[in-house]
């Protein structure tokens, strides 16, 4: 009998404590409400010196549409002005330069041949003109001597002389036309030679410029490449181009920002100048007050987001030397504030279609109370009607 009684007591105790553990109660109170947008970010410098590929690599004539990074100093390295930073693919540039040199040699050979052929052609034309001048003189003498002949013979001699004059003029015009044509052909060769020579000089500049050095003192932070897969840091083996020329940056650590991305459904709710809280993940107790300094005008697709996102910069004070570029952050962008309002956790808010309700804990038990909500964040909601300060509500749905 005693054993049965003890078993009943144990079962009742387990049920009671289990019920107590499951049922959590929240006492409604007034508080200052903040609607926030939470997002992850990364520390970056607001102003940086870019270390980019040489301008000559962007010259379309060289046809180097992109080039690969063959070597890169470790990120975070402290460099002085003129120190080695990276090496681009010189082998590809060298190959293009050699191809250009071969084409230039062939072009110069053809150019010299063209000049010789042109000179020979012009000499032959001049000799032909000189020879024809003798024929014209013969026709002229024959015309002068025809005065002693019949009128018909005189007319024939005169016509022969005039015909030879016209032929001589045609030969002079042909010579001038040929001379002009040959000059154009030679000039075309000279233009091509000048272009290939200029490319040869630029290929040499590109070959030498493939060894990238620091433009000034600073800390090396790798550049980023952007694509459908999102943003990722450049490394050895990455490709850079005229459209994506930045290899690394030298950040100005006096002004730092948390670079984050906000989904398009929220972007209309924020503006430049809005306040934010920034927590440095590596420094758990380091919370910084920030302000939005820039919002991108163009959205982009990124992995991990269902819709397009916009890049947002949150400027923070860089008064702690432990804060470094590329540290991750947890950000809360404050989009609205309401002082001294009834606030409850969103976990205590339930819905049935468009209606919202809570489970109200009263002396006689638990009842359902319909409420009207105001602004909401991802954690809390403002209650306009249905509750009063001091009411007790359940944080989860009761089993019975």
Short description:
The chain is α+β, with helices and mostly antiparallel strands and 400 residues long. It is built from four helices and 23 strands.
Describe the 3D structure.
There is one protein chain. Strand 20 (355-362) and strand 21 (365-376) form a beta hairpin. The longest helix has 59 residues, at 151-209. This protein has 4 helices and 23 strands. It is elongated, with a radius of gyration of 44 Å. It has helices spanning 2-22, 90-145, 151-209, 264-267, and strands at 25-27, 29-45, 48-52, 66-72, 78-79, 84-88, 211-213, 218-219, 221-222, 224-227, 230-233, 239-241, 246-251, 255-263, 275-280, 287-295, 309-317, 328-345, 350-352, 355-362, 365-376, 380-385, 392-394. Among the domains are: 51-88 and 210-251, OB fold (Dihydrolipoamide Acetyltransferase, E2P); 92-209. It has 400 residues and is an alpha+beta fold. Helix content is 35%, strand content 36%. Helix 2 packs antiparallel against helix 3 (151-209). The strands form 5 sheets. Strands 2-14-17-16-15-18 form a 6-stranded antiparallel barrel. A 4-stranded antiparallel sheet has the order 7-6-4-12.
Features:
single chain; OB fold (Dihydrolipoamide Acetyltransferase, E2P); alpha+beta; elongated; 4-stranded antiparallel sheet; 6-stranded antiparallel β-barrel; 400 residues; 23 strands
């Amino acid at each position: 009998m005693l054993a049965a009684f003890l078993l009943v007591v144990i079962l009742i105790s387990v049920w009671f404590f289990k019920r107590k553990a499951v049922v959590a109660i929240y006492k409604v109170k007034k508080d200052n409400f903040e609607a926030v947008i939470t997002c992850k970010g990364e520390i970056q410098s607001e102003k940086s010196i870019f270390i980019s590929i040489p301008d000559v690599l962007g010259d379309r004539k060289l046809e180097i549409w992109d080039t690969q990074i063959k070597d890169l100093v470790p990120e975070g390295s402290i460099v002085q002005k003129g120190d080695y930073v990276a090496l681009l693919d010189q082998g590809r540039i060298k190959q293009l330069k050699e191809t250009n040199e071969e084409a230039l040699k062939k072009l110069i050979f053809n150019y010299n041949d063209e000049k010789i052929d042109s000179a020979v052609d012009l000499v032959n034309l001049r000799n032909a003109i000189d020879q024809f001048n003798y024929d014209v003189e013969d026709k002229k003498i024959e015309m002068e001597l025809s005065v002693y002949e019949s009128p018909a013979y005189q007319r024939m001699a005169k016509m022969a002389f005039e015909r030879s004059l016209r032929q001589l003029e045609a030969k002079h015009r042909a010579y001038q036309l040929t001379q002009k044509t040959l000059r154009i052909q030679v000039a075309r060769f000279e233009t091509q030679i000048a272009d290939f020579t200029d490319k040869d000089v630029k290929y040499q500049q590109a070959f030498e410029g493939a060894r990238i050095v620091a433009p000034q003192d600073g800390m090396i932070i790798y550049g980023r490449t952007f694509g459908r897969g999102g943003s990722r840091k450049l490394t050895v083996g990455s490709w850079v181009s005229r459209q994506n020329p930045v290899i690394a940056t030298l950040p100005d650590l006096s002004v730092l920002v948390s670079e984050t991305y906000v989904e398009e459904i929220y972007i209309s709710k924020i503006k430049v100048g809005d306040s934010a809280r920034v927590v440095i993940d590596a420094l758990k107790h380091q919370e910084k007050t920030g302000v939005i300094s820039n919002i991108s005008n163009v959205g982009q697709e990124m992995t991990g987001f269902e819709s397009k996102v916009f890049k947002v910069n949150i400027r923070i004070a860089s008064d702690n030397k432990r804060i470094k570029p590329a540290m991750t952050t947890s950000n809360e962008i404050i989009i609205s504030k309401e002082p001294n309002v009834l606030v409850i956790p969103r976990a205590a808010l339930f819905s049935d279609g468009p209606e919202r309700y809570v489970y109200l804990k009263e002396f006689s038990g638990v009842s359902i109370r319909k409420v009207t909500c105001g602004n909401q964040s991802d954690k809390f909601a403002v209650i306009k009607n249905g509750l009063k300060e001091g009411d007790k509500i359940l944080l989860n749905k009761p089993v019975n």
